[in-house]
Amino acid sequence: MTAERNGRPDVPQRILDQATRLFARHGFVGASLRDIARAVGIRKPSLLYHFASKDELRRSVLEQMLTHWNEAVPRILRAATSGPEQFDAIGAETLRFFNDDPDRAPLLLRELLDRPEEIAPLVALRVQPWAKIVCDYIRKGQEQGRVHPDVDPEAYVAQVINLVLCGFATHASLRNVLTAPTSDGEATDRLLREMLRVAKASLFLPVPAEPPTRRPAASARA
Amino acid sequence: MTAERNGRPDVPQRILDQATRLFARHGFVGASLRDIARAVGIRKPSLLYHFASKDELRRSVLEQMLTHWNEAVPRILRAATSGPEQFDAIGAETLRFFNDDPDRAPLLLRELLDRPEEIAPLVALRVQPWAKIVCDYIRKGQEQGRVHPDVDPEAYVAQVINLVLCGFATHASLRNVLTAPTSDGEATDRLLREMLRVAKASLFLPVPAEPPTRRPAASARA
DNA sequence: CCTACCGATCGGTAGG
DNA sequence: CCTACCGATCGGTAGG
Predict the structure, then answer these.
(1) Are A136 and A161 members of one domain?
(2) Domain-embedded: residue B37
(3) Which chain A positions have a beta carbon within 8 Å of B26's beta carbon?
(4) Fewer CB under 10 Å: which end of chain B, C or N?
């Protein structure tokens, strides 16, 4: 346990939290050690006592986020066990990860832009198990005729990652690109709902009409 | 004309080009005026003779990109006139815009992350006409039963922008997240193809089997 | 965890 | 378009 007796997290954790926030908002070079220290309520040299350099702080921030991701993966894979709403369950758990801390998507996206050669393999490693499950699920669905036969599983997964990452990282900016009349919360809802719908509709075949009490389809539509 | 007699662009244009490149690669704070000046082959004070401040240089870079976008829009809208492959034509022209200069997507994405409140309305203004056409096209398609009735046109457009922007900005990093066996060019192709497929498959209904010889289409909808 | 301080680099200016 | 220079801020260190 790294939390102190009173409710407040200990200093290293508070540094990590504020660094996450400021790196996500202003980027690695745009957020100075002074800014981060001030947000924590200490001086810069004190910060450097806990993290030997700015770059070590960056790596620690990233590592903490990937640890959180690793904790979320079992939940996601459990959601992917069986049942007709597997996809919704995986989607809900994945969205939850980015919703739990709104800094995660922009932080990851910035790292991908700033240091692709360093981050890509790191992400690949952690996303691999998740992606493999989803790809297998897709291929099985294709054999069973539930999934579009022309889906390229790996490329589909990559594009959905793009969609989710960018969707969360810029939804604060892009929701106003839509017509203004909607409230902020409503605009976010519309964007999230459409994000999931796009991911689903591009994956599944339009269900060959075999729900419980339906006749052999053909004319059913609307 | 701003180009000199010999093939080389004039100095301000060369500054804009290098600034675009370095802002896209390292971000606004991460690319110094010294770096940009050196890439052009002049000294920093000379650069500041052409652009009064770093921020003015940033605005000029952005303005040039939006100007290029404005030049692409008529081509895109012309492609959207009529014919069954409207969507492919719009897609091809839009992809061409980002392909013509690989710095455009990351530059725009970085600006959206760094200065959402400044960039969002600016993008909204320039994307509005394009988005309106696409939204009208979607709604017409919905009335005609060619497009999924549960597509939220504005949200769909926003998500496709996300997909394209992030897809181009990070495709260099994420294509290796896929299985490695493919060559770089092939991986890019797979990602681009899947990007278009996702955008299309989530939009159109699975063509109600009434190809060339079209009749009034009364039976297609219950 | 602090004060005091370091060289390097930042954006920008003076002056020609 | 240049050389020479400015104050401010950067990441990081000494020393307690």
Answers:
(1) yes
(2) yes
(3) 29, 114
(4) N
Burial of A111 (0-12, 13-18, 19+ CB in 10 A): buried
Per residue in A120-135, pLDDT (tens digit) is 888 888 888 888 888 9
Q: State, as a whole number of angstroms, the distance between the CA of A37 and the C1' of D16.
A: 21
CATH number, domain with residue B75: 1.10.357.10
Number of domains in chain A: 2
Do B165 and B82 fall within a single domain? yes
Structural domain containing residue A156: 59-201
Torsion on CA atoms B149, B150, B155, B161, rounded to nearest 10: -70
B218 belongs to a structural domain = no
Nearest to A66 by CA among A21, A107, A28, A34: A107
Burial A203-219 (b: 16+ CB within 10 A, else e): bebeeeeeeeeeeeeee
- Most confident of the following: A50-54, A205-209, B70-74, B91-95: A50-54
Residues B45 and B69 grouped into a single domain? no
Kindly state the tokens that stand for B46. Answer: 């000379």
In a shared domain, residues A43 and A65: no
Cβ under 8 Å to B: A residues 57-86: none
Distance CA A207, CA A211 (A): 9
User: Is residue A48 located within the same domain as residue A64?
Assistant: no
Q: How far apart are CA A104 and CA A161, in angstroms?
A: 13
Cβ of B131 within 8 Å of Cβ of A173? The answer is no
pLDDT in tens, B34-67: 999 999 999 999 999 999 999 999 999 999 999 9
Whether A58 and A115 have beta carbons less than 8 Å apart is answered as no
- DSSP structure string for chain B: --B-SSSSBPHHHHHHHHHHHHHHHH-TTTS-HHHHHHHHTS-HHHHHHHSSSHHHHHHHHHHHHHHHHHHHHHHHHHHTSSSTTHHHHHHHHHHHHHHH-TTHHHHHHHHHHH-HHHHHHHHHHHHHHHHHHHHHHHHHHHHTTSB-TT--HHHHHHHHHHHHHHHHHHHHHHTTTS-TTS-HHHHHHHHHHHHHHHHHHTTB----S--SS----GGG--
B193 contacts on A by Cβ (under 8 Å): 152, 155
